Amino acid sequence: xxxxxxRRGLDSVGTVIIxxxxxxxxxxxxxxxxxxxxxxxxxxAALLAHVWVHQVTFFKxxxxxxxxxxxxxxxxEFATQRALTNNDYPKLLERGSKxxxxxxxxxxxxxxxxxxxxDIEDYYFASTNALASNHNLLSYxxxxxxxxxxxxxIGRILLATSKNRKExxxxxxxxxxxxxxxxxxxxxxxxxxxxxxxxxxxxxFTSNEDSKSNNLKLGDLNFVGRSGDRHFAVVEVKLDExxxxxxxxxxxxxxxxxxxxxxxxxxxxxxxxxxxKSRQDDDIFAGMTSTRGKKASxxxxxxTAVSQEVQxxxxxxxxxxxxxxxxKDVGLELxxxxxxxxxIHQGSSEVEFRQAVDRLVQEIxxxxxxxxxxxxxxxxxxxxxxxxxxxxxxxxxxxxxGAWIH
Length: 406
Description:
The structure is a single chain. Strand 2 (about 175-185) and strand 3 (about 190-200) form a beta hairpin. Helix 5 (about 90-110) runs antiparallel to helix 10. It is built from 10 helices and 6 strands; from the N terminus they run ααααααββββββαααα. It is globular and about 85 Å long. The two termini are about 25 Å apart. The chain is an alpha+beta fold. The chain has a 6-stranded antiparallel sheet.
């Protein structure tokens, strides 16, 4: 229990109720619950103050995770964890620990296959730091502006790293914003901000040519298409998947690549989308029919429209492939996020924000300095490290929620 029995300053006698959650305390310890004088006073303001001091800064507006951190250390959560301990969780943890040991051994034995990417673990952790810093800054900016002060406006070129996507993996992939911030509520009640981007998929990406089409087309969320010898995808990107915001911005007709209302719940899932294994490459030339035996004037509007889409896709892909080459070579110029925060804070908050931006720039520079950043098989090696480190976090925390507690 927390607090005291009875009302402070009013009652001399109070009632104590002990919630035992399935087991009773030993007889010799019960007196500790009923005797003595309690001077501890728990008020909601104290909880807010605790959350603010330990979890929230001016630019890390994430009250949901902060309250979750406190609640998970509450009496109720303690009982939940104890119940799990009495059931299957120990077995799950043991199995995870064995899998982690196996992954570590396989990673060491495959060292010869990572020539040129020997520093992939250092690269992973450096990238994780940069992603977290960028997430905090962009969350702060989007709390005042849907475009994060222009950082996430339509046409902005970003570098994105996928986070636990089953369909495909990409790391520091050039992406163009085609829909600014969408704020929604996830299944667990947390607020989540996402953007819609057209992402250049890795050179090694392949899809199942023999699978049936899932009826997605250009303009639909989760559409995967091809232009020349490269693939692209129109997907939702969470703010914690944005590695860097570049100073590069292009003019783009966003309605061609993403049409509002084509997906019922775009911020939570890819509505109507099937797995990549069942997806056929959507040919952006689909719809262009032969003129044989028909009057050209009767089909000209449709052909013209499709031809314009093809041209627009090709133009954007040129920008993305050039951005990819520049990032691997010298690194794209970053957007100064300090310029995106004008007139939204002052005093000590402004100083702290500027310091946070400087740290982010340094973290991105550290990532770019590592040889793995330009490695042709970066996505494969990165996914391997991500899998074992995510599992390691789960085992270290010793909690079913260990995969997302940081």
